[in-house]
Design brief:
The structure is a single chain. The longest helix is centred in the middle third of the chain and has 27 residues. The chain has 5 helices and 14 strands. A 5-stranded antiparallel beta sheet has the order 1-14-13-7-8. The protein has a single domain, classed as Phosphatase 2c, domain 1, CATH 3.60.40.10. It is globular and about 55 Å long. By secondary structure, the protein is α+β, with helices and mostly antiparallel strands. Helix 1 packs antiparallel against helix 2. Helices cover 32% and strands 32% of the residues.
Length: 246
């Protein structure tokens, strides 16, 4: 797997309320990865606290829940249940913090766990997860928006069960997670062209391609915080070091 991250405060923002997590561990059964993008709700107070806390909880969840279960049967089913428990507890923590501090706060969450050729994704809010298959970009998530307003998130909003689904990731395919500031000005063709697997052979190349997409979005007038993580499953001949950097 290749991976890269993009995180930018944006053109006219005072702070970046997005938080990201990317953790990769090699086990005896192969590599295990967790990646996530959380976008603190700008219309509420302390969005950066909400997004940061959720990514911290995901990091703890990765090491305390995912890694110990990786070698056991029924891994996918057990992780789904454990993730729901984690997010429900996180929701209650954010609600309690809001009551204590007399404030409202919340964050979107779009995350993925990858092992072998499988992945499990979880989503609430209007950050997005795309699967890019060679030159085709498909949005896996549905935006939790109605009439321009966010209808699903972790935090001050009433608890709603997040969407959790699974799939297979084949060689040459990738998973993109991004906040709305990243995707608002980018259509699917622009994303798929910018992250074409034939042009990516090293981790640092993903960083540069994500940055190029982010800068294009800013030239189109995007002013919001921008965050993105891209995971690409290499083809057999697409090993790091085989090709020169582009």
């Amino acid at each position: 797997m290749l991976s890269g991250v993009y995180w930018n405060i944006g053109m006219e923002m005072d702070a970046n309320q997005d938080s990201v997590i990317l953790e990769r561990v090699m086990t005896k059964r192969g590599e295990l990865i967790i990646a996530g993008v959380c976008d603190g709700i700008g219309g509420l107070e302390r969005g950066e606290i909400a997004s940061g806390y959720v990514t911290e909880r995901l990091l703890s969840f990765f090491y305390e829940e995912i890694l110990p279960r990786h070698k056991k049967k029924g891994f996918k089913r057990k992780i789904r249940k454990a993730l729901l428990r984690c997010l429900y507890a996180t929701q209650r923590d954010l609600e309690q913090f809001g009551k204590q501090e007399k404030c409202r706060l919340g964050t979107t969450i779009s995350m993925v766990i990858v092992w072998n050729n499988r992945y499990l994704w979880c989503h609430m809010g209007d950050s997005r997860i795309y699967r890019i298959s060679w030159n085709i970009c498909r949005q896996l998530t549905r935006d939790d928006r109605y009439d321009g307003k966010l209808t699903g998130a972790l935090g001050s909003m009433p608890w709603t069960k997040p969407v959790i689904q699974t799939g297979h990731l084949f060689p040459g395919q990738g998973i993109l997670l991004c906040s709305d500031g990243f995707w608002e000005k980018l259509d699917k063709k622009k994303i798929s062209d910018g992250l074409m697997y034939t042009a990516i052979h090293r981790n640092e190349q993903i960083d540069r391609h994500l940055k190029a997409l982010g800068e294009y979005a800013m030239r189109q007038g995007e002013k919001d915080n921008m965050s993105a993580i891209y995971l690409l499953r290499k083809k057999e001949r697409q090993r790091e070091g085989v090709y020169g950097a582009l």
